[in-house]
Amino acid sequence: MRVTSAVMDGLIVAALRRRLDRWDRLWREAIGAAASPAEKLLALFGAVSIYRGRYTPGRGCAFLATGTELPGLDHPVQAVITAESRNAIETE
What we know:
By secondary structure, this protein is mainly α. Helix 1 crosses helix 2 and helix 3 packs antiparallel against helix 4. The N and C termini lie far apart (about 45 Å). The mean pLDDT is about 85.
């Protein structure tokens, strides 16, 4: 069975969307549990630690790595990368 490019693109998009959804949920829980602005800022470190322990021990950003490997602005993965970037800006 030959896997087509469109199928591979769909798998990459689905994997990144799942990763983003997990991170977003965990990040919002961490911020929501923080009592002060300083604790909200520091919640990032706890959230990253929990995320890596629960979902992926890897280093680096899957979104940046994927964007580097698939840099075409018309590639389907760009929508997920843009959503991740907007999410990061909105939570700052």
